[in-house]
Amino acid sequence: MSNYELPKIWQWQDENDSASGNRPTAGSRFEQTLPVGAAPFQLYSLGTPNGIKIPIMFEELKEVGVADANYDLYKIDISQGDQFGSDFTAINPNGKIPALVDQSLQVTVFESGAILLYLAEKFGQLLPTEFHARTETLNWLFWQVGAAPFVGGGFGHFFEYAPEPMEYPINRYTMETKRQLDLLDQTLAKRAYIAGDDYTIADIAIWSWYGQIMLDRSYPGSAEFLSVQEYPHLMAWSQKIAERPAVKRGLAVTYHPIEE
């Protein structure tokens, strides 16, 4: 039984969030100069489920012969607060990774789903042009964007990072995570990939979260806890995507430091 009493007005206590760097305010906190390389694209990110989507996308573009898909990749260390620097928040005012600059057009793009869509449209790859197939792909891309906070911010947080086990949030977010896994399993029982017969940006977005969970790469021990063997179609898809050469390269890519 918790001793917590709900206050009439919530007040932030710095000591509760000092490790994470979280605050109830937005915007930059310090002056920062990010490195800028010579490649057409400058990507500032980290190897999180959201972060890995974009190196995988670039490597998939290279795999199909897109000549202009070269990128410089820089590490934004969120544990050190790099995401709150002035240069980074100028690219993404929300202060979250990943963030992209297309130097050919001087366009900034933030949010992983938006970056996937931007690159797919720019190069005409991994997004069907036929109306129904395109719509289905976008259905699932935006499903992932809306659904993953329940898995990462909810289940993952209370399973892996909370200071002590808490039954209520664990039960709540585990139930929702398993519902989402079941939805994906039922979907993949009828089709080869998330949106149909072809591999798309929806697969990249969803695999980076759910495929990693199925393969026990996100929160150690969570695959057993979630009984992922109950989802055979999702498991087969997760393993299939993991074997793609571009996915392997995207996961192994080097994140260069922003300070020498």
TrEMBL record:
Domain of life the protein comes from: Bacteria
PROSITE patterns: GST_CTER (PS50405), GST_NTER (PS50404)
Alphabetical list of Pfam families matching this protein: GST_C, GST_N
Residues annotated as domain GST C-terminal: 133-260
Cross-referenced Gene3D superfamilies: 1.20.1050.10, Glutaredoxin
Domain annotation GST N-terminal: ranges: 39-127
Sequence similarity: Belongs to the GST superfamily.
NCBIfam families, sorted: PRK11752.1
The protein, known as: Glutathione-dependent disulfide-bond oxidoreductase
